């Protein structure tokens, strides 16, 4: 009964969001949340939060990411528009059965194949247009985690998948490669295009130089290493600038303890475009 009520509440919340935004698919972000009760994740979370707070103090409302109150500090594993709705009598709403299957597939993957992974921030800020991100050391564990999630969840993506506007501005052959990923998996940043990072800024009204001057100081002072073991995977509604809405987190699942090194040869070469 509790599970049923949980699905009904989630369905109503997602349907309200979709109606408000006038979208036909629901964009969800499957991610590693950095904010946990475990002291082992203190550094990645605190560095992400404090650097974001510094930007918000400096640029006020022009900074769209708010990791203190509105958004979740996270590492995205798979973000896509998912087909979780149904239309009847001219009315579109989230289908509780579709949502239940979606969450069940993620829960099963977390329990059966998804390992806990270390997240280690790189102290050199990455500025891309309006975005500012702390890169995360790419590891076989994180790559496998993202790959397995895409394998488990790609069947739920909306068809045809929407192509993000920024892809059209990329040079060739990167543009064609990214569009191929979107067509196949609903996301441009998976498998061979997966680059783990934590977004701390999305600001279209200030220059990269101004924001970089602030963030470079955080990078210089960042502990080495700045890492932590992430024990859970979560799914939530995506917001502006690749963010995850704090009030939009739908569910959180524990990852299985890592039983040994994750080898690169677990990644299937046939998945790469």
Question: Would you give an account of this structure?
Answer:
- This protein has helices at residues 2-21, 42-59, 96-112, 140-153, 174-185, 208-221; strands spanning 26-33, 74-82, 85-88, 91-94, 117-120, 126-128, 131-135, 197-202, 227-230, 232-238, 244-254.
- The chain has 273 residues and is of the alpha+beta class.
- The chain has a single domain (2-268), classed as Cyclic phosphodiesterase (Cyclic Phosphodiesterase, Chain: A).
- The strands form 4 sheets. A 4-stranded antiparallel β-sheet has the order 2-1-10-11. Strands 6-7-8 form a 3-stranded antiparallel β-sheet, covered by helices on one side. The protein has a two-stranded antiparallel sheet with strand order 3-4.
- A hairpin with a 2-residue loop joins strand 6 (126-128) and strand 7.
- Helix 2 (42-59) packs antiparallel against helix 6 (208-221) and helix 3 (96-112) runs antiparallel to helix 4 (140-153).
- The longest helix is centred in the first third of the chain and has 20 residues, at 2-21.
- Mean pLDDT is 86; it is low at 15-23 and 261-273.
Summarize the structure.
The protein is of the alpha+beta class and 273 residues long. It has six helices and eleven strands. It has one domain (2-268): Cyclic phosphodiesterase (Cyclic Phosphodiesterase, Chain: A), CATH 3.90.1140.
Give descriptors for this structure.
Cyclic Phosphodiesterase, Chain: A; disordered C terminus; single chain; alpha+beta; 4-stranded antiparallel β-sheet; 273 residues; 11 strands; 3-stranded antiparallel β-sheet; 6 helices; globular
